[in-house]
Write a structure and sequence with these properties.
202 residues; three-stranded antiparallel β-sheet; membrane; transmembrane; transmembrane helix; Paraquat-inducible protein A; PqiA-like
């Protein structure tokens, strides 16, 4: 009965990990104010002409009401999951980074949870002791999966910043994958605290 709680915690963490990896983690959207876009376009055209041309363009813009346009248009939108980021990094030939993100956000977490589950289910023997040592070793990397999320957010934000100018208003929104992954992290931490690795001499 005392093993029921850690086993349930591990199973919930595993169930949260899959959507946490495959569902969108972050959506970045950039919108341009229509009036600012019109003003910038006119200013760029006017720079190519003389003073008279510039005055005519400004007057035409005012007459047409281009400086009073309302609303925004979408200029940039990107939604990525952890797995989608791995694929994008690989497609951009960042193979090492893609492999590290996949390793620490997918392989290591799933492997650790499965080993913890096996540790809870098998009786005490030499294999269980070895498995306990491996689990303790993996626990040293317990915060790397959280770092992966931070890196993905920074990667997407940096990628967007490189394509955007002052005209664009950026808006970031966490996706369902972020909350699933956060839930996985919390349950994985809880599982680690509930499982007591028994020393060999006990």
């Amino acid at each position: 009965m005392r093993l029921l709680l850690p086993i349930m915690t591990i199973l919930i963490a595993l169930a949260l990990l899959l959507p946490g990896v495959t569902q969108p983690v972050l959506t970045l959207e950039g919108k341009i104010d229509k009036s600012k876009l019109a003003k910038t376009g006119i200013a760029m055209i006017a720079d190519e002409g003389d003073r008279h041309t510039r005055s005519m363009l400004m007057m035409a813009s005012s007459m047409l009401g281009l400086d009073e346009l309302e609303g925004e248009i979408s200029a940039y939108k990107k939604t990525r999951s952890i797995w989608g980021t791995v694929n994008e990094l690989a497609n951009n030939k960042n193979y090492l980074v893609a492999a590290l993100v996949a390793l620490f956000s997918i392989v290591v977490p799933a492997l650790k949870l499965l080993m913890q589950l096996v540790y809870c289910l098998i009786p005490m023997n030499k294999f269980k002791h070895i498995l306990g040592q491996v689990i303790q070793g993996l626990s040293k990397w317990s915060m790397v999966d959280v770092l992966v999320i931070a890196l993905i957010v920074a990667y997407l934000a940096g990628n967007a910043d490189g394509q955007m100018g002052e005209l664009i208003n950026m808006h970031a929104e966490f996706g369902t994958g972020f909350w699933y992954f956060t839930g996985y992290c919390l349950f994985a931490i809880a599982a680690s605290s509930l499982i007591k690795v028994t020393p060999k001499n006990s």
